[in-house]
Write a structure and sequence with these properties.
By secondary structure, the chain is an alpha/beta fold. It contains 5 helices and 7 strands.
Length: 189
């Protein structure tokens, strides 16, 4: 049996409601496409805004395959998912579904409000690398802020949200950081 390695899942979080002309839509689409091109899968909250745009972008990658977009919904109805989600998990967990972060090897935040801030905090507690794209909302503010100056390992700065100014920079950070952070799985602050 030819066993292939599991592809990393990267959570893309941010604004749930966006005007189609909002620049965050294009950013999220580019992030989704670049993630799949880099061999990752995209996991989101499965609804609109940044979530839908990231999954739509993932489907534009030349190496896209069914199963590359995962939507983890807060409600019970799978029909609420954006049509770009290949795999839909209707959890009925409401805000507690933010635990989707536990299944991601990294998190990319694009803008966002209170829900995004909650997901970033969860990722930080679960020791997942968080990349904050410089887009209006919490991601821009968090990317400009150093959360803590403690060093946990010599090769990574554990208490940092990594800022990125472009989608390409965000993907480069994800690919560099995932192998460093995976060693710390299962450790919660």
């Amino acid at each position: 049996m030819n066993k292939q390695p599991r592809r990393p899942m990267v959570a893309v979080i941010g604004d749930a409601k966006l005007d189609p002309a909002d620049p965050k839509v294009a950013l999220a689409q580019e992030i989704g496409r670049l993630l799949v091109e880099s061999g990752c899968r995209v996991v989101t909250g499965g609804l609109g805004g940044v979530m839908a745009a990231a999954m739509q972008g993932a489907k534009q990658a030349p190496n896209y395959a069914v199963g590359d977009t995962v939507g983890i919904l807060p409600g019970y109805d799978p029909a609420e998912a954006d049509q770009s989600a290949d795999i839909v998990l209707a959890t009925g967990m409401n805000l507690a579904r933010n635990i989707m972060i536990a299944n991601a090897e990294a998190v990319i935040a694009i803008g966002g409000g209170a829900g995004t801030l909650s997901e970033v905090a969860m990722a930080w507690q679960l020791r997942r690398p968080v990349i904050a794209l410089a887009a209006k909302g919490w991601s821009k503010q968090l990317g400009a802020t150093r959360l803590d100056h403690r060093q946990r390992q010599p090769d990574i700065d554990d208490d940092q949200i990594y800022p990125a100014h472009t989608p390409t920079e965000a993907i480069q950070l994800v690919m560099r950081l995932i192998p460093l952070y995976v060693r710390r799985r299962g450790t919660v602050r």
